[in-house]
Amino acid sequence: MEVLKVKYGTPDAAQRFCESLTNTGFAVVTDHPLSFDLVHRVYDQWARFFSSQEKHEYTFKPEQQSGYFPFRSENAKDSPIKDLKEFFHVYPRSRLPEYLMADTWKLYGELCKLGEEMLNWVQVASPESVRSKFSMPLSEMVQESEENLLRVIHYPPLQGTEEQGAIRAAAHEDINLITLLCSATAAGLEVQDTAGNWHAVPCDPGSIAINAGDMLQLASGGYYKSTTHRVVNPMGPAAKLPRYSMPLFLHPRSDVLLSENMNAGQYLKQRLLEIGLLKKA
């Protein structure tokens, strides 16, 4: 299984990007216009936030899904064991500490812009039989969406007392159209092939890993597969170090049709119930 590295700006970038998405569900984009210095600054600023007690002042409300999610809030679909992570959901409506606002909102905007371009790559490079299934061009689905989500994740150092079977992020698929993942501060991301084998996804500094989500799979009639992935626990000295990552989940506006009988808002609510972030009424 080979997750392709695609150099941004090359004539065949869109074609290679979609080839990798089709074959593996993932692609890694290099030489993109996103500032690596900006990514580093945002990581440093959020490390300060997660190490402070002020994070509890921003604890999320289930009906809003915005704000701070304490350690072990989430489980993968069909998994009874909570992941070893805490995180913060950044939406356009989110309230942030003042020292986080400038760089976080700048990164959010740049990732959304780049993500729209990646969706246009998918649109252009997909067969006509696939494009005809989309209720509108993919990039238009996410424009001015209030559900585009930057999730800032902190995986604390392991203590050696973790529940058996608990890992940083259990095997799962993403809910959205595509996910853009800035290179994390440490390795650990793995993708599963069709035979059930796991493969490390490159996280070279300055690269962005992009994967297809369940909504793209649904909208494309299954042409693009939402590939299973996970974040494994490190071994040795690395186990005593934290890991940070910042995926941007590109979500359509709630009223966008993904299939004949399902819009994005309905699908999102269904999946949030399954992963424990939304409780049944």
Oligomer: single chain
CATH architecture: Sandwich
DSSP strand content: 15-25%
* Helical content band: 25-40%
Question: How would a crystallographer describe the biggest sheet?
Answer: 9 strands, mixed
* CATH topology term: Jelly Rolls
- Overall tally of domains: 1
* Element order: H for helix, E for strand: EHEHEEHHHEEEEEEHEEEEEH
Written account of the structure:
This protein is α+β, with helices and mostly antiparallel strands and 281 residues long. The chain has one domain: B-lactam Antibiotic, Isopenicillin N Synthase, Chain (Jelly Rolls, Sandwich), CATH 2.60.120.330. Helices cover 29% and strands 21% of the residues. It has seven helices and 15 strands. The strands form three sheets. Strands 1, 2, 3, 4, 5, 7, 10, 12 and 13 form a nine-stranded mixed β-sheet that branches. A four-stranded antiparallel β-sheet has the order 6-11-8-9, with no helix packed on it. Strands 14-15 form a two-stranded antiparallel ribbon. The longest helix is centred in the middle third of the chain and has 28 residues, at 98-125. It starts with a strand and ends in a 7-residue tail after the last helix. The model has no long low-confidence stretch (mean pLDDT 93).
